[in-house]
Amino acid sequence: MDFSFTEEEKRFRAEVRRTLIEQVPGHIRQAVREEKPVPREWMVEAQRILNRNGYAVPHWPQAWGGRDWSAVQRAILAEEIDRAGVPKPLPFNVALVGPVIAAFGSEEQKRRFLAPIANLDLWFCQGFSEPGAGSDLASLKMAAVRDGDHYRVSGQKIWTTYAHKADWIFCLVRTAQGARKHEGISFLLIDLTTPGIEVRPIRTIDGYHHLNEVFFDDVLVPAGNLVGEEGKGWSYARYLLGQERTSMGNVGVSHRRLDRVGEIAGPLLDDPAYRRRLTWAEIELKALEITQMRVVANERPPSAGPDPKTSILKVKGGEVLQTAAELLLDALGPEALTAGFPEGGDEQPFHGLDARSALVSAYFSSRKYSIFGGANEIQRNILAKAVLGMGKAA
Amino acid sequence: MNFEPSEEQQLLAASVARLFEDHGAQTSADPAGQWRDYRDMGLLGLPFAEASGGLGGRFEDVMLVMEAYGRALGQAPYPAAVVLAGRLLEAAGADALLADLIAGEKLAAVALYEPGRRYRWNDPTTVAEREGEGWTLTGAKIAVSGADAATVLLCPASTAEGVRLFAVPAETAGVAVDLRPTPDGRQAADVRFDAVSLPAEAEIGDPATNHGLIAAAIDGAIAASCAEMVGAMEKLLDLTVDYLATRQQFGVAIGSFQALQHRAADMLMAIEQARSMTIHAVAMLEAEARPRGAAVAAAKALVNRTSRFVGQQAIQLHGGMGLTSEYPAGRYFQRLTVLENLYGDTDHHLDRVEAAGGLRAG
Fold first, then answer.
1. A28 at B interface, C-beta within 8 A
2. What is the ipTM of this complex?
3. Under an 8 A CB cutoff, do B273 and A309 touch?
4. What distance in Å separates the CA atoms of residue B300 and residue B303, rounded to the nearest whole number?
5. In 3-state terms, what secondary structure has residue B139?
6. A47 touches A56 (CB < 8 A)
7. pTM
8. Nearest neighbour of B255 by CB, restricted to A291, A380, A391
9. How far is CA B279 from the centre of its chain?
10. In angstroms, rounded to a whole number, what is the distance separating the alpha carbons of residues A43 and A362?
11. SS3 sequence, chain A?
């Protein structure tokens, strides 16, 4: 047991921090720190800088740009990226589709996709959820029917973050009706410029446009875009969920937000009631930091599937983020009343968006943390069953 | 960073778990025999440097012992006599007394708190006045843990030169130890010092540094109590999950109900966070006073809040059985409630964190 960071880990953190501040332009970090949405080209610019330093895909196999860094080092990296206000490497690329292609893709797919994915030359979005398949993902229906060298894909995906910015989408599709609903699911890569695809925006209560519905009407997808074997999509999705978990708790984002509280709360910091809420948030965040490191340091092979304790990071990390967003909202007081935000478009209202409005918007946006990636209620189911060994829910 | 116990630490944890379980299973309590077992296993010297005659144990080892102690509802005065009093003796350079403690020949307790002053210990109303070469000690202390077994009471008292620290044999004339039952079935004492004459040698420490020494010793004891509470809470959650799997209603085990599963999951998450803060407190024990105090206080605040939640929910999930005194869940709830108030309740420690400028300062 050694509960302190090693000298090497401390040096690593200092080096990462210095590199990020030196290389990532200040206006990008400023926008993130102010909770403003970041234009596509800034996200691409930031990820290329990260990739150049080995910071975008350190968890990948070394042949494809990964680094020989420990999980603790990778967690330090993720925390520093968030805390510095650098846009995260696009998770759909680096944490989700990339590792699946690296593990199960053909050599040709690896050569074609991995480097552009790491560098954000290709932007992927995630096509998992459907209108009838949310927490119960295995009920998905979008059909891919083999037709010669192609699949014909028809159906609908929903809650697709950044589909309007993306070049490609990776989808779970139904290629067969299995005896069990987890069977007959396949993992397919689809070029979003293919005819028959329509992306429609979903406006959200934070005023921005991140989410979309994606409609597929008899879309022809080359059979070579199937990843791995037909019918094994569910196991690949499980593999994907067991992937990089070093930033699951979003520790760096919460730090950044509590930093921001310190900047804007002013005299409220001397108000005992507000101060006490902030103290609790600081304590929960410190505990989360250690819990994150405990889960991270307990490295498991990806084939072992997700560590059920990551559900704790998901729930507690989301709670701390949401609490920090509330503290920011409440710091505005009556000024929140005149801090509305325009509806629609993410890059258009970005210019000149009032700093207060960005915080109010971030509060509404923060409610997503207990919903996406398996709602908190699903995480509690996982903990009860996989960690506590409790019986099937009635 | 490495959270895995070494092989040696795993061995230690397993041995103490077995020992504490055996002690718990004894039908008639034999405190003296149990204390000899502690000594024979090397636990009495565990927290102390080799130079002080100890085993050079790091506090991580103490944490492991205290977790096992918490799981087993340990009864011996280990936290009060060894972790608090022993570490204070070591810091104060009271080598002879410490040697007797490590040998199991003497048992000490620290008398910190006073009537009506909650958790204030740093400016005692108990006073010591010079009397020839020695001192006269007068005052009242309350809630002295481990006083039932203690042969020596360590007592801070105000003097013209600041707070002095006295090691008072419990049998000294004028010392009145009023043993009272604690809510978890043990004993603690209110102690009166009625013009107690002490020789000069009774003083340990140095008024110039006592404040820092006592604060550091209390912070160590708090970290140990956090570990004890985490051990107790994990065991209580185990008991609760077992009960939910066994208890049948409406033709099924009630643990199959999602509302109850989610409650148990909330308990689990809260305990994991409490464990993390305990680790943080232990990691910070050697830091400077301000960040150390903030970390330890934050840990106790979170562990306290968690303990109240986990304890209350465990009773709720046990239904009527949780209210009976023969079922173990209630015993754990009682122990946790006592520990919540030991060395400062939740609000006290939140005040400490804030007075230190918060957890993220510097």
1. no
2. 0.96
3. no
4. 5
5. strand
6. yes
7. 0.95
8. A391
9. 16
10. 18
11. CECCCCHHHHHHHHHHHHHHHHHCCHHHHHHHHCCCCCCHHHHHHHHHHHHHCCCCCCCCCHHHCCCCCCHHHHHHHHHHHHHCCCCCCCHHHHHHHHHHHHHHCCHHHHHHHHHHHHCCCCCEEEECCECCECCCHHHCCCEEEEECCEEEEEEEEECCCCCCCCCEEEEEEECCCCCCCCCCEEEEEEECCCCCEEEEEECCCCCCCCEEEEEEEEEEEEHHHEECCCCEHHHHHHHHHCCCCCCCCCHHHHHHHHHHHHHHCHHHHHCHHHHHHHHHHHHHHHHHHHHHHHHHHCCCCHHHCCCCCHHHHHHHHHHHHHHHHHHHHHHHHHHHHHCCCCCCCCCCCCCCCCHHHHHHHHHHHHHHHHCCCCCHHHHHHHHHHHHCCCCCCC
pLDDT tens-digit series, residues A111-125: 999 999 999 999 999
Residue A277 to residue A283: CA distance in whole angstroms = 10
CA dist., res. A135 & res. A345, Å (int): 28
pLDDT grade for A392, boundaries at 50, 70 and 90: low
Helix/strand/coil for B157: strand
**Hey, which residues of A are catalytic here?**
244
- A389 CB within 8 Å of a chain B CB: yes
Contact A59, A244 (CB under 8 A): yes
Name chain A contacts of B274, Cβ cutoff 8 Å: 287
Question: What is the distance, to the nearest Å, from the Cα of residue B209 to the centroid of all Cα atoms in its chain?
Answer: 23
Spatial contact of A28 and A47, defined as CB atoms under 8 Å apart:
no
Q: What is the pLDDT of residues B228-263, one digit of tens each?
A: 999 999 999 999 999 999 999 999 999 999 999 999
The tokens for A382 are 């996982």
**CA B224 – CA A39 distance, rounded (Å):** 50
